[in-house]
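User: Could you walk me through two proteins back to back? I'd like the raw sequence and the structure tokens for each, with a short line separating them so I can tell where one ends and the next begins.

Assistant: Of course. Protein one, sequence then structure:
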Amino acid sequence: MGQSAAFFDLDKTVIAKSSALAFGRPFYRDGLITRRDVVKSAYAQLMFRLGGSDEQTMARTRDYLAALCKGWQVEQVRQIVAETLHELINPYVYAEAAVLIEEHQAAGRDVVLVSASGEEMVRPIGALLGVTDVIATRMAVVDGHYSGEIEFYAAGPAKVDAVGELALTRGYDLSGSYAYSDSYTDRPLLECVGHPTAVNPDRQLRKLAAENSWPVLEFRHPIPLGRRLRDRPAVPVAAAALGVGVGVAIGIAWYGRYRRARTAPTT
């Protein structure tokens, strides 16, 4: 029997929003994407989640991601993420997920974030949670810019391949390991461990969990990490719902006004 590990999907499992869409506003502000790109990205992600884990859907999403990021400076992306992480991600970490991560770590298990979002986004989010191991999408880089090619797309069965490689390297016993996800697209990830758990599951995953008698958890309390540590074990009574599409456009407008207000000279 080897060491066990705990594998966490990121979006809607650990944080109450899409990690990729969360950075849409600063990417728009710095000229990396247009307003149309933001809405198209939101729509592409929604279609991916609704369309399931078929290869055609994943391939379209992967190709769109590669084309969107082509030519971006890697260092610029990293700087944007670093500057906005605490504003755009920290308030949306589920208190329940943070506690669960701590419990696994206290039990001596390695915790690994597994996400289709880019590594430049996922790794800093992991650091925010005290997690150093991540499996995420890796973009090809040429002369400090994304080339438009994807070296590894961390979605569907590819997640399982990466988990298997990590388990082989580290000696993890997957039959004694844990996995958490909200999406049916992560069925292969959940089925590759001995202790799968559905978190805030979509309809298909909820049905799958019922058929296999998997535990189902409902995380409802996103709260900033600093506040959670001060107020522990208290959590908010309710969390606000997050919109996609129109909500993204509204968010861009709000962020633009917020930035202008911060940078306007005082008189």
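----
Protein two, same layout:
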Amino acid sequence: MPTATTSGYVPVTGGKVYYATYGEGAPLVLLHGGLMTIEAFGPVLSGFAASRQVIAVEAQGHGHTGPLDRPMTFDNMAADVAEVIKSLGLEKVDVVGYSMGGTIGLRLALAHPELVNKLVIASAPYAFAGWHDYNQQGMRGLNASQFEMMKPSPLYQLFAAVNPDPEVNFPKLLDQMQYMGKDYDYSADVPNLKVPTQLVYGDWDAVRTSHAARFFELLGGGLQDALWDGSGMNQNRLAVLPGVTHYTMMTSPQLVETALAFIDAK
């Protein structure tokens, strides 16, 4: 992990959220997955920070941020990210979101396209039905009763390393994360996304491959041949990384290489 150059809290509805910045360059907001912290990105964070100023935000209930006095929803957390961007005086940023962070990034770009230059959504569906059955069952089962079982896990250890009262706050997080197990479907909103967007999945992801293809189609992608000169393409892209799972995506150098190639393309 690189050393943070700055860190702090930004007031939001229901409390405040934590952010930390790493590296120098054009700003890139990095959004973690469910039950994770900034540190879970490891080499991915280092890879982005080698050429970018990374602004990593810890979502409601997670890491340094801890519980907030309001329901946990994708839209609430997207609004938090918007507040962080504005509080830092940034006009437009690139956004890379993984899993839960990918859906937060989607909601951010839909609500605040003026703040987002390019968006990379990694290992996230546009609807709850996009997860495989195994993952749906796990999300539906999230609650505080799983705390003792999860205490030996790396997820809890990373949380406990940065949260001031992990024995109290991690069970609260597990209860609030029950929102992830509720049905949602943003298919009607996806075609309204105006920000250039890249979807990135592992070939053995927790998101169904057919769902990833449908997500791309909702963005207008893959609906016709690109033609010899590429004029049949639009601004959006789809990448499937070989040998990558949902659980290795967040630390894969392939994510950094693929995302930056898209973000840096003219």
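The chain is about 35% helix and 20% strand.

Let me know if you want the two compared in more detail.
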